[in-house]
Prior knowledge:
Blueprint: E1 10-17, H1 24-34, E2 37-44, H2 59-69, H3 83-86, E3 87-91, H4 99-116, E4 127-131, E5 148-151, E6 155-156, E7 161-162, H5 165-176, H6 184-187, H7 195-205, H8 208-225, E8 236-245, E9 248-254, E10 263-264, E11 267-269, H9 276-288, H10 294-299, E12 301-307, E13 318-326, E14 341-348, H11 361-369
Parallel strand pairs: 1-2, 1-4, 2-3, 4-5, 8-13
Antiparallel strand pairs: 6-7, 8-9, 8-11, 9-10, 9-14, 12-13
Helix pairs in contact: 2-7, 5-8
Amino acid sequence: MKTTQPQGFFDVLVFVGRFQPYHRGHQAVIEAALERASHVLVLVGSSNAARSPRNPFAYDERQRMIVDSIGEMSIERTSPIPTNARIIVRPLNDHLYNDAAWMAEIQRHVDDVLANAIPPSASTPRVGIIGHAKDNSSYYLTVFPRFEAVDVPGWAGDDRRLLSGTAIRDRLFAQLSGEHGGDAARQLVLDDVPRAAQAQIRQIAATAPFATVAAEWRFAREYRAAWSNAPFPPTFMTVDTVVQQSGHVLMVVRKDFPGQGMLALPGGFVKQDETLLEGALRELNEETQIDVPRRVLIGARRAERTFDDPYRSSRGRTITHAFRFDLSEKKLPKVKGADDAQDARWIPISHIRPEHCFEDHAFIIESMLGVA
């Protein structure tokens, strides 16, 4: 059994992914990394994301899938260190619309591993970033000059199929929706997922929060199907308002899918006969009934920006234009949830968390207010 390190061995290889869910393609990348490196740093992305059809599994659930699947790995021993000690799993937060913050977080994780997990050496540590360059989502392989990029195939099994988390999630939600009949939690068989991860998914799929996500998946699928006969894939335009006063931001609790029960910015779709600003003011009034005259709101406008992450909405390609309004009174105006809003609330800026918010609204607030 080989225990010496071959030439070209890395001290650390970094593997960034969302692992929604963790599947055999991910496992193949980690196995390839273990053959090339002393330690593998697995960064689980979107760790601060709210549950949604695109992010149905929480960080701790995905972390457990990875850790429990280590015993199923088939690798040649290239280090005297036990495999479970060579794989380091850490959470990686989303920083939509702020790539610098996202890259800085990755760099901090790498520096921490080098300082605390790698034995001191006279030579400069060799660090690489590993993954499969499948599409634009793999751009991270080329944006870290400090790290050598290692591109691996990303397939699993002898048939060399490229695995897709999206396809696995769709299969899972279809089963939960009864489209294949029977008790989905018992009959679920995910051939593209390691056995230990399958056990985790069966447990999670039987919970009420996951059932809510499955219902949202059905809603989004039906929504997209309604537009399937359009001559071109539709792109929707919405508006959102970031109204701040006295260290608070005005938010609503969504009444319906998608994002039922989640905190969101007041906003909605733009009508054919109105400007973006007119649409934003209309939606703000309809959803919050804010006790501020229109002329005062217009005078309080301070900034605006378009937010266009391609995956920001489960309904399909949806671009939003956000307006920021700074109100100067000390007393917070009265608000009341109406129309699409179950409730309207003034939320302290320090209490706004992505895991509590609809789509990318926490990141829109962060960007519009310049909050670190």
